[in-house]
Automatic annotation (TrEMBL):
<dbReference type="GO" id="GO:0005737">
    <property type="term" value="C:cytoplasm"/>
</dbReference>
<dbReference type="InterPro" id="IPR003462">
    <property type="entry name" value="ODC_Mu_crystall"/>
</dbReference>
<dbReference type="InterPro" id="IPR036291">
    <property type="entry name" value="NAD(P)-bd_dom_sf"/>
</dbReference>
<protein>
    <submittedName>
        <fullName>Ornithine cyclodeaminase family protein</fullName>
    </submittedName>
</protein>
<dbReference type="InterPro" id="IPR023401">
    <property type="entry name" value="ODC_N"/>
</dbReference>
<dbReference type="Pfam" id="PF02423">
    <property type="entry name" value="OCD_Mu_crystall"/>
</dbReference>
Length: 338
């Protein structure tokens, strides 16, 4: 006799997610809301860990874990970071998110986390700019054309409507294609640059999302003019070691997270490892600024750097938003658990 299953979970593919009509404003709103929760102490946020397989340096996995008290949902994300995947026609970052019921421990959903990873990263950049960039910023310089880059540019432009957008990446075909897609989507010309210097020098908002395999000083302090806002988050540092000399405020997503994981990974890890960045040198965590506990930008001339490494809670927040929409629309595949 077959025993009927009493526990089911919902599986949501990327195609399922695309069908739900989630908007840019939905994603930014979910991220900003959970950042305020951080500032109010209404999350449980565990340090990320890395799994580095014996694969000849092809890539590694990040494991992120978090819980949202107000929404009563917990989650775990596993995301790969494999730089050479473009050679196989695959994204460099592919992820799965498991959402769990914190009252029973039962799984609620398995969600394709690839778009979520890209979108929540872009939303974090955008929320940071909302609170830290100079109002009226008109020039964006963006280094990198991987999946998160699209969301950085699109969500930033939705807030600032830039007069000029400059982009570059290591491979000409990558940067040309990236600029063309953005031009068509935004309805404005996106300028392709050959170098990071041409892209970043003098921009109002500077974003570094490079895919380096060894540290290289792509971002130099002379690029930061008064009022500049810089967001670096490449896995391997692309910052000049003396860059912090030109920065008035450093904001992080989470100070503990800044120090967690492999000491080689993180845009400011060389600065942290060398003692050039310490806790006393950090102005605030972004959650405290969004919650109103700490000031953000206080003058038009401040040069502000915002380093975000990725908060598990933002993944859980966006995945939970998607799950709620999917449940309401009965989208996805129900899988028997037990």
């Amino acid at each position: 006799m077959t025993v009927p299953h009493s526990v089911w979970l919902r599986y949501l593919t990327g195609e399922n997610i695309d069908s739900l009509g989630i908007t840019n404003a939905d994603i930014v709103g979910a991220v900003e809301d959970v950042l305020a929760d951080h500032g109010r102490g209404e999350v449980v946020f565990e340090p990320r860990t890395h799994l580095v397989p014996d694969n000849g340096g092809k890539g590694h996995f990040n494991i992120l874990r978090g819980h949202l008290s107000a929404k009563q949902v917990s989650g775990v994300k596993v995301v790969g970071d494999f730089v050479g995947n473009f050679e196989r026609g695959l994204p460099s970052e592919m992820a799965l998110i498991l959402l769990l019921d914190p009252d029973t421990g039962m799984p609620r959903a398995i969600v394709d986390g690839t778009m979520i990873t890209e979108a929540r990263t872009g939303a974090m950049t955008a929320v940071g700019a909302k609170h830290l960039a100079r109002p009226g910023s008109k020039v964006l310089g963006h280094v990198g054309a991987r999946g998160t880059a699209w969301w950085n540019v699109v969500l930033l432009d939705s807030l600032f409507d830039f007069d000029e957008i400059r982009v570059t990446s290591k491979r000409p075909e990558s940067r040309e294609g990236f600029a063309q897609r953005l031009t068509e989507h935004l309805g404005k010309e996106v300028r392709v640059c050959e170098t990071a210097a041409e892209t970043l020098d003098g921009a109002d908002v500077l974003v570094e999302a490079s895919r380096l395999t060894e540290p290289e000083a792509l971002v130099r302090k002379e690029f930061l003019r008064p009022g500049a806002f810089l967001v670096p988050y490449g896995t391997i540092s692309a910052l000049e070691l003396t860059l912090l000399d030109a920065v008035d405020k450093v904001v992080v997503d989470n100070w503990r997270e800044s120090q967690s994981g492999n000491p080689r990974f993180g845009a400011l890890r060389p600065h942290l490892n060398a003692g050039l960045l310490t806790e006393t040198g950090v102005h605030a965590e972004i959650g405290d600024i969004v919650a109103g506990n700490r000031p953000g930008r206080e003058s038009d001339d401040e040069r502000i750097l915002f380093w975000h490494r990725g908060l598990s809670t933002t993944d859980v927040a966006v995945a939970h938003l998607i799950l709620q929409r999917a449940e309401a629309a009965d989208v996805g595949t129900m899988l028997p658990y037990r």
